[in-house]
Write a structure and sequence with these properties.
Chains A, B: Belongs to the Casparian strip membrane proteins (CASP) family. Chains A, B: Its main location: membrane. Chains A, B: This is CASP-like protein. Chains A, B: It is a multi-pass membrane protein. Two copies of one chain form a homodimer. The first copy, chain A, has four helices and two strands, in the order αββααα. The first copy, chain A, is mainly α and 163 residues long. In chain A, strands 1-2 form a two-stranded antiparallel sheet. In chain A, strand 1 and strand 2 form a beta hairpin. In chain A, helix 3 runs antiparallel to helix 4. The longest helix of chain A is centred in the last third of the chain and has 33 residues. The first copy, chain A, is elongated. Chain A starts with a helix and ends in an 8-residue tail after the last helix.
Amino acid sequence: MGKAKRICLLLLRLLASGSTVSAAIVMATSREEARFFTLSFEAKYTHTPSFKYFVIANAVASVYGFLVLFLPAESLLWRLVLCFDVIMTMLLTSSIAAALAVAQIGKNGNSYAGWLPICDQVPNYCSQVTGALAMGLLGLLVYLLLLLYSLHSLLDPLLLKKP
Amino acid sequence: MGKAKRICLLLLRLLASGSTVSAAIVMATSREEARFFTLSFEAKYTHTPSFKYFVIANAVASVYGFLVLFLPAESLLWRLVLCFDVIMTMLLTSSIAAALAVAQIGKNGNSYAGWLPICDQVPNYCSQVTGALAMGLLGLLVYLLLLLYSLHSLLDPLLLKKP
């Protein structure tokens, strides 16, 4: 593998790790207190299981991403990395999907189930969660790119190379 | 590849397609009408965007799964199948995660956001959704198995074979 290509791949991994770290931090620091007449309530990520899962999944992916950065280029472990990439991409996909599903209810509510939207009461909390989801999505996209690139260079599925 | 192994893999694919088909059908046919004093309301999968996405994702995965069953063993397209397997597994993962997140709110509610559980009002609807999620989960597990098996036979990541 060329040196330029390797540096490019490492930079992509760095970007992925950076995105997942910031997604976890932004989500974990999101909180806002709202006052509704005499009633005061607090919006926090720990109140929603899906958001807790999002933070955990992104933290796990970040630790993994940083560990992979220090793997020497000649290591045989790179074969295992592809399998772990698949698992991490699944983990990030599920966490983002779950958090998005709950955030969608938080934003629009669900009139059939009688769930009211809460974003009008806690707008800062909502925008911080949106930011965390965007960062998580960026991390996921980079992982997906890395994964499809690995598969492409392994398999040549589009049969571009001459046999 | 041995004939027994090929039949085993095809049976796994058949199982995966069967699971995703039944997950889509069970979710799509789930509906229940509930009466709450004079108020009557209907629970249906189309009322929840995540459940709609679940049905669509499982339907897409089913069509793909059945198409792959008819691919001849010598086809060069099998290389492309691995990439599509990755994408389908992502699709199923995200749909199940989103549907699970909403189903969890439907079952337990979220007291902080003021969202009440609805499963006491529509128990049959809830158990049907649970069944659909279980079938979807089975399909996802089989796809994950197929994917990790493909990667294993391609890469030998655990270095079991002698070089």
